[in-house]
Amino acid sequence: MSPTEDRQLSDYRRREQSITLAPLEDPLLPADVEGGAETTTELLTLNFGPHHPATHGVLRLLVTLQGEVVLDVKPVIGYVHTGIEKTAEDKSYWKVIPVVERMDYLSYYFNAMAFCGAVERLAEVEVPRRAQYLRVIHLELNRIASHLIWLGTSALDLGSSSIFLYCLRERELILDLFEMSSGQRMHTRYFQVGGVIEDIPAGFEPKLREFLKIMPVRADEYGAILNANEIVLQRLRGTCPLDQQTLLSLGVTGPLLRSAGNPWDLRKADPYSSYEDFEFKIPVGTVGDNYDRFAVRLAEIYESVKIIEQALDGLPEGPCITEDRKVALPPRHELATSMEALIHHFKLVTEGFRVPPGEVYHPIESPRGELGCYVRSDGSSKPARVHMRDPSFVNLQALAPMARGGYIADMIAATAMLDPILGGIDR
Amino acid sequence: MKRDTLGSTVDPQTLGVRGLNAHQLLRGADLEGANQPAHLEGEELEGYVQERVVTTTLNSAVAWARSNSFFPLAFGLACCAMEQFQTAGPRMDIARFGYEAFRASPRQADLIILAGRVSIKMAPIIRRLYDQMLEPKWAISMGACCSSMGVFNNYALVPADKFMPIDVHVPGCPPRPEALMHGVLKLRKLVQDDPEQGWRERYDAVGTEERP
Amino acid sequence: MPDATGLELLAQDLGDAALETVYFREQATIVIDPGEVRAVLQRLRSKGYAFMAGVHGVDYYPDEPRLGVLYELLDMARVDRVTVKLRVPTSAPEVDSVTPEWPTANHQEREVYDMFGVVFRGHPDLRRILMPEDYEGHPQQRDFPIGGEPVIFTRDESKWLEARE
After folding, report:
1. Architecture (CATH level 2) of domain A84-426
2. Interface probe, candidates C128, C131, C149, C153, chain B, greatest B C-beta count within 10 A
3. Residues B61-71: pLDDT tens digits?
4. Could you report the predicted ipTM of this complex, rounded to two decimals?
5. 8 Å CB contact of B83 and A80
């Protein structure tokens, strides 16, 4: 430093320049690496107990730490195991629908869809086109609702509580729509084997169109708030990346796989319930870090809005449930005039319909990945085995590779971006 | 703009008490002449006191304060937790009643809302959480699954009554935010009217309070 | 799903390990010999079915062999699914674990063990996953009682209260 510059610097600035800050920047580097300090080899196993504000339900994580670096994560589950699959073996097929809806409790229509799809396949029941379109509308609305709660709770984990309240406000609009069509806000029993239980009422379409005008604007707002927030970006960008190959070997599907660059989406690859009639894009990420997972899910909200618009515009006329009286209840007005309708109604309500024996696996694309329902029937009116291949259960295995090597805060962000729903994990 | 000593620009005339503070009101500074408290006797004095002073027992006052400021434990198990979020959300705003401070730690909470199904693996943990809460504490069992067995009557669930005392059961699957609010307000009424926290009599647990 | 002929060709390729093929509702299932599960899955992986979508456990009570394990395989490039099924009796419920080659089967095999009692040899961490660690019994077996609390209706309430005293 030349003498002229020396005179211009203050005492403080001169002292500042003489200190090297490198060892303070990364205290966990080993001592022999340049800039590192002494490390400790003592490992701490911390229990993120089932009751924890950041675990998205009752998930227990046993975390092995070295300082603040996560070396291993072992999830322990089972704290909300409800024996749903066992209960389902005891009930007739249409009674299983409300029971199975309560598995993945944020995407209840998807659980019902997977089960109804499997039974429709087994019983070879044809679903009318209007029912398929109505199903798509409700499924995509549920996808938006599920992503809103994911966004709200993840933002809450990252520290922003206002986004949580905004997302709840939008979700109220969606729950109003569900209440209009089926009478219940959650777990609506709207999907039945063969179609949907009732047609949408008169005010549903205008209200839905209003919602579709609002939702992209609001999603823009949330994106703008979070993408401009330095803290959120620092916590999400570059943290916990996982490549496609590891994810595929772990069986991960859904937005997690799409954020790593693999555009696998069952709605496009193997369309069910007339998804092939709609034009929509699949948001795909590049790096596979937490920010990509966040961005992919946020983008999916816009795509769902597009699908609902197209479904609403193209809604065909027709019955909303199959005409096969052996499977679906006859309309009430027929009960006064037709003897067969009365008998069908009686048999369906008391015993339920019989399904030919066989085994079937019906996969659909839920907000978390591939949700598949395996149904085994032995010819009676009750299923012999109902097993859901739940996406959260399989995706949870990806938490350990994601969190290894990062800090605890990164693990919290990874859990949030993983979007685990303990109801689906534990069933 | 005329300001009073606290800087407020509200016109005292509109308040109707000509800009007097509580101390002055108590001493009857807004009354003239013969209506001053020094000149009142008997029934008139009683009427004067009743107009300006609220009397209550300490128990009632404490119960009033406690019931209007529950700190719920941020505890959600399953689907009912989603409706619990909606109750805290903008439409059915639980903050209107003063209960928006969801605490993460059981030591700081006094109301546990069991939202969701209680499995056999989770029951001892909930019991431990309830034990960690400090007295006085209340419990609301939200939803059909923890009140009775709900939709699932099988090997994996425990009704909450089996392992902890519950004050209010809220039925529903899941209960609407309005229903949960009704349950919480019922609890508020219970705490206001019965400061003895009647669950100890109901569950035959008198004498189990922690003594310092 | 491979169509019926494709399924037959696939089964022929597996040789002795494939005991039976089932083509039902346009879904293909190959029933295999339980001892050959790892080899069969590797062979199917080389044919393109590289993604394991799920592992299901089933109890075929009262048909013997009772316990079944189904592996759902998916070929993402050709959008093709095939199910590999094996059945073991309760007297010898042991199957080789496929976790070393298919890491996704880790938790899923633990679930089948927990619910049905199928022991997976070579699994890195075979413990109960959904039930408490010290639970006895395998709940999802068909002869396991469903359990639950008795429902007390108001008309029976006085009887119950008397019985308690």
Report:
1. Orthogonal Bundle (1.10)
2. C149
3. 888 888 888 99
4. 0.90
5. no
